[in-house]
Amino acid sequence: MNLKPLGDRVIIKADEAETTTASGLYIASEAKEKPTTGVVLAVGDGKLDKDGKHLPMPVKVGDKVIYGKFGGTEVTVDGEDVLILRADDLYAVFA
Amino acid sequence: MNLKPLGDRVIIKADEAETTTASGLYIASEAKEKPTTGVVLAVGDGKLDKDGKHLPMPVKVGDKVIYGKFGGTEVTVDGEDVLILRADDLYAVFA
Amino acid sequence: MNLKPLGDRVIIKADEAETTTASGLYIASEAKEKPTTGVVLAVGDGKLDKDGKHLPMPVKVGDKVIYGKFGGTEVTVDGEDVLILRADDLYAVFA
Amino acid sequence: MNLKPLGDRVIIKADEAETTTASGLYIASEAKEKPTTGVVLAVGDGKLDKDGKHLPMPVKVGDKVIYGKFGGTEVTVDGEDVLILRADDLYAVFA
Amino acid sequence: MNLKPLGDRVIIKADEAETTTASGLYIASEAKEKPTTGVVLAVGDGKLDKDGKHLPMPVKVGDKVIYGKFGGTEVTVDGEDVLILRADDLYAVFA
Amino acid sequence: MNLKPLGDRVIIKADEAETTTASGLYIASEAKEKPTTGVVLAVGDGKLDKDGKHLPMPVKVGDKVIYGKFGGTEVTVDGEDVLILRADDLYAVFA
Amino acid sequence: MNLKPLGDRVIIKADEAETTTASGLYIASEAKEKPTTGVVLAVGDGKLDKDGKHLPMPVKVGDKVIYGKFGGTEVTVDGEDVLILRADDLYAVFA
């Protein structure tokens, strides 16, 4: 991806929500549960501390993460819907 | 658990709410009191201080804790409902 | 008490509210004035400063204190109702 | 007074509001203007700075002060109504 | 004035609002525009910095100042109406 | 101007709003668009840092600036309407 | 551009919103989607740290950026509509 998040932001590709239930019933897109897991596509340099140095970022490209449902801004880049959010809105990373 | 909380967050498995009262009456799940005690499943590295070092976390895996009823985010990991919350939302630990 | 408050929190056992008035009239529990004095049962290690050291706590176990009416969280531990609140919600201590 | 305020708090005994006007008319207690001057009965050790030292308090016991009308918490100690408030809610001291 | 403001506060005597308009019409007191200029009567020692030292105050006794219309607290001292406000609510000083 | 702004404030003389449109139509003063450009008339010494030193101000007397429409306080000094606002409410300066 | 943003602000020229849809239908300007990408026209010196030094800015003139839809202030300079916003309202930069 040729898009670099700024500051302590990351770019996330949300996981596809399941479109079939356990019973095999198809769910229309309006009813799909908003996903809260995704994969990190890009990572910013980190927040600046008072001396102008970057604080370390807690995740790296490729990490699978859980993030806040209402955090971030959805943007469409090269026809792909991604989410830009701050590292602090990431709750956990799959090890 | 293969899920690592980020920053000063912990992952908690809430205790089961009592499903029988002292008189033995079964209480349906809608009426169950929301538990506020639980066990720590995973602990983040701690909040970053201004120098990029992690501040120590007050609990460790396996600790039984009391936490704020409305704190945190419920997530389902591997079919298990857990709670991700910040260490500051933990009120006390059983010694 | 086997419960240790975290950070700058303390555990308080509220004083019993008076159940008889000066005129000797019994007051039902619904009408009892919420007590604002109590005894300190347990004390946290103190808030972390920027260097990861604990700041001193202003009270010790056994102190009788005045605290904010709406501060804190009520929990029941071993059948006993206690209050967990932050040291900053303690207003004064009886010398 | 055997009550010690905590942190940057002070205990104030509010001045009696005037109960007669210039014209000698008695004013019932409901109509009395809430006093905003009082005398300092007790002084806390001061707020902790980042190194765990107490910052100096701006008033001492016996000082007559002007304070914010809506600041503080009223408590009754040994049958006496006093006010506990933070030093920052004190506006001025009579020299 | 025997009243010393605390912290970064100053005591201001508001200028009299004009009671006659350019056309000589008298304006009743209810209609008088609230003055926003005044004279500094007393100056506090300044806000405490983290080391317990006082930061310098930007005005001195006798300065004529412009201040925020809604800032401060009106008090009556020795029959004189004055205003206690924080130095930061002073906008400018006449040189 | 004999008026010195305090702290990080500046005094601005707003540019006259255009009173004729491109078509030559006169616009009554009620309909005039509020100007957001102006000239700096006076500059404060700057905000105090924690050591009591003044931080540098980003503009100087005579600079033409763009500022926030709703920022600042309008005052009339020597019959001239000027605006006192904080340096942070200045958006840009014409080079 | 002869306009220099102050502090941590940048000046952005928003990209033109598409005025034809995929089906070739013309969209009137009222219905155009507000653009959230643009080009950096000018960059401020950066926010002052506590020592009066400027923190580095994350973008440079000519960078194409994604920014918050509701961030910033629209101004018209030399007949050109541009946006002044803070660097923190920039989400990402195209590499």
UniProtKB/TrEMBL annotation, chains A, B, C, D, E, F, G:
| Listed PROSITE patterns | CHAPERONINS_CPN10 (PS00681)
Q: Which domain of life is it from?
A: Bacteria
SMART domains for this protein? Cpn10
Which InterPro entries does the UniProt record give? Chaperonin_GroES, Chaperonin_GroES_sf, Chaprnonin_Cpn10_CS, GroES-like_sf
Q: Which CDD domains match?
A: cpn10
Subcellular location(s): the record lists: Cytoplasm
- What main location does UniProt list? cytoplasm
Q: Which keywords does this chain's UniProt record carry?
A: Chaperone, Cytoplasm
The subunit structure is: Heptamer of 7 subunits arranged in a ring. Interacts with the chaperonin GroEL.
Q: Which family does it belong to?
A: Belongs to the GroES chaperonin family.
What HAMAP family does its record include?
CH10 (MF_00580)
Tell me the function of this protein.
Together with the chaperonin GroEL, plays an essential role in assisting protein folding. The GroEL-GroES system forms a nano-cage that allows encapsulation of the non-native substrate proteins and provides a physical environment optimized to promote and accelerate protein folding. GroES binds to the apical surface of the GroEL ring, thereby capping the opening of the GroEL channel.
Q: What is this protein called?
A: Co-chaperonin GroES
Source organism of the structure: Raoultibacter massiliensis
